[in-house]
Amino acid sequence: MISNLQVDVYVAPAAPIATGHLDPSKRWFSPTSCTLIQGPTSAVLVDTPPTIELSEGLAAWIKKTAPGKKLLYIYTTHLHGDHFLGNPILLRHFPEAKCVATVSVVDGIRKQWPGSLAFWDKLFPNKQIAGDQHIPNALPADGKFDIDGHLLQGIDVPHSDTDASSFLHVPDLKLVVCGDIVYGDCYQFLGEANTPEKRQMWLQSLFQIAALDPHIVVPGHKRASQIDGSYLIEATRAYLLAFEEELEKAGDSEKLEEAMIRRYPQRWNRFLLEQSCQRTWSALGLED
């Protein structure tokens, strides 16, 4: 049967962040992917960007991309705020939408709340973050829901760049919307995958996605021009293995950072690369 579903990806552009760095390459946050899946009458949005301005841009794009469609759900892939802090803005434009996530992701968001909000408010100061935040509603235990009769399923994974992570599988499109399990050309955040065990679990999560044999694979962060495809699963895996290799050779976190820049000079968000290297080095119990 030919699917009457359509998928579009909006990439919220890189945004300035208050890191205090003199290096301008460490004063920008990664572009963020927001995926719209629509049927004949309704739609679901996967992830929203962190700031009011970026989320207003997303809302305007949805209205142009799916005119007359009812946005039923806003699905959050994982517990990091850069993927759900824009939800209140989307709800102002689409008040019938229901914010949802898997049980595990909802629990993860609840546990790190409100400390997480303080972190994002500091990174995006001067009330760039919407004030009327709330935690998404938990989906049924099996993660299943639908739009226009088409199955969608939120599926948990062992780990990604954080512990409470999931992806959205849309079998009729052979689509997986991956959140931060899969990355495009942005430095992967390893600050919460700072041990060999956690990085191994991340690799297991990639295998879990690959086993579904998806044709369309949407990463959580990417260049706007980058095609969404299964090759990104292998690219994410290769980055993790490269990080492991360079970690073995590096004498300190700065040398690790420099080595990753040499291997991946085109990637965005060197602030998160720096954080990843520092936290991973610290987890080794060594001083720089």
Structural class: alpha/beta
State the share of residues found in helices, binned by percent. 25-40%
Report the average pLDDT across residues. 97
Radius of gyration, taken over Cα atoms and rounded to an integer in Å: 18 Å
Q: For this structure, what is the CATH homologous superfamily? A: Ribonuclease Z/Hydroxyacylglutathione hydrolase-like
Question: Architecture, CATH level 2?
Answer: 4-Layer Sandwich
Largest sheet: 6 strands, mixed
| Low-confidence region ranges | none
Number of domains: 1
CATH topology: Metallo-beta-lactamase, Chain A
Give the N-to-C terminal Cα separation.
58 Å
Strand arrangement within the widest β-sheet reads 1-4-5-6-7-8
- SSE pattern, N- to C-terminal: EEEEEHEHEHHEEEEEHEHHH
Shape: globular
CATH class: Alpha Beta
Number of strands: 13
Counted by DSSP, the helix tally is 8
- Assess the beta-strand content as a share of residues: 15-25%
Notable features of this structure?
288 residues, five-stranded mixed sheet, 13 strands, 34% helix
Describe this structure in words.
With 288 residues, the chain is α/β, with parallel strands linked by helices. It has a single domain, classed as 4-Layer Sandwich (Metallo-beta-lactamase, Chain A), CATH 3.60.15. It contains eight helices and 13 strands. It has helices spanning 52-65, 87-93, 103-111, 115-123, 196-210, 231-249, 253-263, 270-283, and strands spanning 6-12, 15-16, 28-29, 32-38, 42-46, 70-75, 98-101, 137-138, 144-147, 150-157, 165-170, 175-177, 216-218. The strands form three sheets. The chain has a six-stranded mixed beta sheet. A five-stranded mixed beta sheet has the order 9-10-11-12-13. It has a two-stranded antiparallel ribbon with strand order 2-3. Strand 9 (144-147) and strand 10 form a beta hairpin. Helix 5 (196-210) packs antiparallel against helix 6. The longest helix has 19 residues, at 231-249. The protein is globular, with a radius of gyration of 18 Å. Pfam families: Lactamase_B. This is Metallo-beta-lactamase domain-containing protein. InterPro entries: Metallo-B-lactamas, NDM-1-like, RibonucZ/Hydroxyglut_hydro. Residues 31-221 form the Metallo-beta-lactamase domain.
